[in-house]
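User: Teach me something about this protein's shape.
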Amino acid sequence: MLAENIIRRVVARVMVPFIQLFGLYVIMHGDSSPGGGFQGGVILGSSIILYAIIFGRRAARKRFSQAVGDAYNSLGLLIYATVGLACIFFGGNYLEYDVLPIGEPHYASHMGILAIEIGVGMTVAAVMITIYFEMSRRKEPRAEGEGG
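Assistant: First, the predicted structure itself:
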């Protein structure tokens, strides 16, 4: 039994950074390949959930506290809203990236989409982790007929 725990812990320690790196890759290349903020955020969130399953909720909360999760939720939403409002401010529609003053319209569109993908990825990862921690905190429901 002890050997199984050691193997799981070693494998998780090796895999978590690679899962996170792949999640960042999916986010950063979401405008030009399959994937994007949502998919990358799910991958990033799953790396912390894997860590929590293997090492326990307390160890995972030390690495990703509720305050950090709340900050990522808020910052991701703020990035999304700021880019959209900046597009309106510079004379376009909400999320019409090519009006952003970042050089050529094609480049501005690329940078706007990238910022949106980062914001969505941060928010999705933080929400997934929060949902996991909230659901894992709940007690098992009692079976019918148990006293209580």
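Now, about its shape. The helical segments are 2-28, 37-55, 57-63, 66-89, 105-137. The first helix runs from residue 2 to 28. If you'd like, I can walk through any region in more detail.
User: That's plenty for now, thanks!
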